[in-house]
Amino acid sequence: FVVIAMDHPGIYLTDLLALNMAPRQTDDTRELLAELRNFQGGFADLEGIVDLDRIAIAGHSAGGAALAELGDEPGVQMLIPMAAAGTMASDGFSLVMGAVDDQVVAYSEAQEGYAQTPGDKMLLGLKNAGHLAFSDLCAMGRERGGLIAILQETGVSLPEAAGDLIVRLGTDGCAESQMTPERGWQIINAVSGSHLRARLQCRGQGMTVQEISNEFASDVEVSAP
Q1: Which of 111, 131, 206, 220 fits 195 for a cystine, CB–CB 3.0-4.6 Å?
Q2: Nearest residue to 133 (alpha-carbon basis) of 163, 104, 164
């Protein structure tokens, strides 16, 4: 696989702390795909190497919401919204993932989004897990109390106008009693990886509901049409 991870101005931590959010992730991605198809700039060396008829797009939280409409982009075979909702993709495959105990984007939004998602799809819920299970934020600075504790320790002031939103965004799912980041990554990587290989490399069928349930037992709930 060739993996492209984008920076998205307007939704950096500095933007959040300044309460000056102006994300345009959907447009960012469409512009990147256009540059990629033309093999412009930093993509020039990929010409003749990548198959642009086989593209997957993944995003977490706001990124998961931003990709909902991108199933109409040429070559997109798979969409993976995490801790968000569903997609509008009638073609391809949507792997909708959420955390059952998410206090930022309720798991019910993933369930409702999945129900409204057309086409081939699967819903994977991580039990005893929160919003950050799909990121590395709970592992970053874990020995120092986590991201919010590090911000406070270094003198960064959290804006009062945001209420507890920033704290939840930096801590939800990081409790010691919840699923460890490492266990979450194991499940996410196994399921998404199997379907990426199936859809983009024509290798296998991707893990079935039964296979996922058998392997990860009480840590997941999973469904498919």
Answers
A1: 206
A2: 104
Residue pLDDT, tens place only, 98-130: 999 999 999 999 999 999 999 999 999 999 999
- Give yes or no for a contact between 2 and 33, defined as CB atoms under 8 angstroms apart: no
| Local structure of 25: helix, strand or coil | helix
Planar angle of CA 150, 151, 153, nearest 5 degrees: 60
- Give the N- to C-terminal CA distance of the chain in Å, as an integer: 28
Q: What is the pLDDT of residue 162?
A: 78
* Crossing angle of helices 181-201 and 209-216, rounded to 10°: 160
* pLDDT at residue 88 greater than cutoff 90: yes
Measured distance CA(37)–CA(44) in Å, rounded: 10
Distance of alpha carbon 97 from alpha carbon 126, whole angstroms:
8
Tokens 């058998």 -> residue: 214
Q: How far is CA 142 from the centre of its chain?
A: 21
Q: 10 Å Cβ neighbour count for 97?
A: 27
Contact 104, 83 (CB under 8 A): yes
The predicted model scores a pTM of: 0.93
Residue keyed to tokens 């992730």: 25
pLDDT in tens, 129-187: 999 999 999 998 888 888 888 888 888 888 888 778 888 988 999 999 999 999 999 99
